[in-house]
Design brief:
Layout: H1 4-18, E1 36-43, H2 49-65, E2 69-75, H3 80-89, E3 95-99, H4 100-108, H5 116-119, H6 130-133, E4 146-158, H7 159-164, H8 176-189, H9 204-215, E5 221-223, E6 229-231, H10 236-251, H11 263-271, E7 277-281, H12 285-292, E8 299-303, E9 314-323, H13 329-348, H14 350-362, H15 377-387, H16 395-402, E10 410-411, H17 418-434, H18 440-457
Parallel strand pairs: 1-2, 9-10
Antiparallel strand pairs: 3-9, 4-7, 4-8, 4-9, 5-6
């Protein structure tokens, strides 16, 4: 594993070598000779040298295929707090990505370009999983972006720890009761190991409580027929979820002794063998390998259990590539070609899929990390056959997830003030794990009041 300083040095060198620059929209979009200029932002600041080199290669391939389009790639990270200023100041790239939680709101607010006409011209327009494409579809039925890298929340587990505790790693838990029982067994047989743990801070506590709530059939927010959002954190399913955590913590003593984890912190604890099972995105193995040096042969993942009621669904998230609302029609058409080429085609085009897999394998990155499929099962299976020679995660370790995800109902995140809601729920989760007598009812009512005020201020 490279140190953060080493990664920064390599990234800086790669930036100089492949011409990835800081910048904004190409403004005019053309050079007067029929050429369309695009500024795209496919990587986050601090991307590794391998990732930047691969991006440079893809840009060259794209420009060879579309010689009338000139692409400049930049590093960029979208944040809700800076977006409005960037939009007003004209500093947004032509193509950038936003999270699932914000794409529909931005589309409905008229802050993203309508790409419907050009999206329908792509070869995959009719293949999309409608639940996934919906996050990029406005209330007017038009398409405002192309989703990529979607994940479904899943249960990650350490197969080695399961074996040491006398459990079968090929038969992971399929219900919340089984998670609780396995966690209790692990903690009793392997002192110092938390059988199960969840994230609790920096908005992740609320994120994972939302997952539990929706897996049980509840919702933290509801949208009325008039479009009005009502915050409903104080509901029976959320209380059931918190009671489940309370039992694991106080009755079973199966959650260890550290109850303050963010995303990177719990990944580190899992990779070091201090946590046996935890809830995370289905694609987390990629980060565990890159950032934590985790041995992927020990990794197991399964679908997170859903209740049997019709409302239960697994929370999903991901990214949406969108286009600057100020772009010309020629730029919008070119932008959709870029997004389709860079994001979508590696899923459905064999040569692109193989090249992408080779690049990932060369950089010791996860090749076959399980994600939420954006297309139908047949398309996914074909893609898996193409990349099979380069797989670097044991396929059998992923089967509990890949066999089950197509049967799970997808449930999107709460639609309004999502991160504010998650942040407000962090203290509730922390209280349940640190105070046996925590007053959950009053805390959830306070969350409803606080977030509803924010929603109402938006006029929704």
């Amino acid at each position: 594993m490279k140190s953060p300083a080493k990664i920064a040095v390599l990234a800086a060198a790669a930036l100089a070598g492949v011409g990835i620059l800081s910048g904004c929209s190409s403004n005019s979009g053309g050079s007067g000779d029929g050429q369309v200029n695009l500024v795209v932002a496919p990587v986050l600041p601090g991307a590794t040298a391998d990732a930047l080199t691969a991006l440079h290669d893809r840009v060259k391939q794209f420009e060879k295929k579309y010689p009338d389009i000139k692409v400049k790639a930049i590093e960029y990270q979208w944040t809700g707090t800076t977006f409005a200023a960037e939009l007003a100041g004209g500093t947004l790239p032509d193509v950038f990505n936003v999270p699932f939680t914000d794409s529909k709101t931005l589309a409905n607010n008229g802050q993203l370009a309508d790409i419907t006409k050009y999206f329908k011209q792509t070869s995959t327009a009719d293949k999309w999983n409608k639940n996934v494409l919906d996050v990029a579809t406005g209330d007017d039925g038009k398409v405002y972006g192309i989703p990529w890298g979607p994940y479904a929340m899943a249960l990650s587990y350490n197969r080695d720890i399961f074996t040491r505790a006398g459990l079968d790693p090929d038969k992971p838990p399929t219900t919340l009761d089984e998670i609780e029982q396995d966690a209790k067994t692990i903690s009793q047989k392997l002192p110092g190991v938390a059988g199960y743990m969840q994230m609790t801070k920096d908005n992740t506590g609320g994120w994972e409580l939302a997952t539990l709530t929706q897996a049980l059939g509840g919702h933290l927010e509801k949208v009325g027929s008039d479009g009005k959002v009502t915050v409903t954190a104080d509901n029976a399913k959320t209380k059931q979820a918190l009671n489940w955590l309370k039992a694991l913590r106080w009755n079973d003593d199966a959650m260890g002794s550290n109850f303050l984890f963010d995303w990177s912190g719990i990944n580190e604890a899992f990779a070091s063998g201090k946590v046996a099972m935890y809830m995370s995105g289905s694609d987390v193995i990629g980060s565990l390998m890159q950032a934590n040096g985790f041995d992927q042969k020990k990794y197991g993942v399964t679908t997170f259990p859903l209740a049997s009621n019709a409302s239960a669904g697994i929370l999903s998230g991901g990214n949406v590539d969108v286009v600057n609302v100020k772009d010309s029609p020629e730029q919008i058409a070119a932008a959709v070609k870029w997004i389709d080429f860079y994001r979508t085609q590696p899923t459905v085009d064999k040569s692109a899929a193989v090249k992408n897999a080779k690049t990932l394998a060369k950089g010791d990155q996860a090749v076959n990390a399980p994600t939420l499929p954006v297309f139908d099962k047949a398309t996914w299976q074909k893609n898996q056959e193409w990349i099979k020679p380069y797989d670097n995660i044991p396929v059998e370790n992923l089967k509990p997830f890949t066999d089950g995800i197509f049967d799970q109902k997808i449930s999107p995140e709460p639609p309004s003030h999502t991160q504010d809601l998650y942040g407000a729920l962090d203290p509730v989760v922390q209280a349940v794990l640190t105070d046996k007598n925590a007053d959950v009812d009053s805390m959830l009512k306070a969350v409803d009041t606080k977030i509803q005020a924010l929603v109402d201020a938006d006029g929704k």
